[in-house]
Amino acid sequence: MVQLIHNFFMVTMMTTDVAADFDLKTYLTTKCAEVEAALEQSLPVVYPETIYESMRYSLMAGGKRLRPILCLATCELVGGTVAQAMPTACALEMIHTMSLIHDDLPAMDNDDYRRGKLTNHKIYGDDVAILAGDALLAYAFEFVADRTQNVPPKAILEVIRRLGKAVGAAGLVGGQIVDLASEGKTDTSIETLNFIHMHKTAALLEVSVVAGAVLAEAESETIERLSRYAQNIGLAFQIVDDVLDITSTQEELGKSIGKDVQAQKATYPSIWGLDESKKQAETLVQAAKDELAPFGTLKQPLVAIADFITARTH
Ligand code: FPP
Ligand code: MG
Question: Where do runs of H (alpha helix) occur along 43-171?
Answer without folding.
Answer: 49-59, 66-77, 82-103, 120-124, 126-147, 153-167
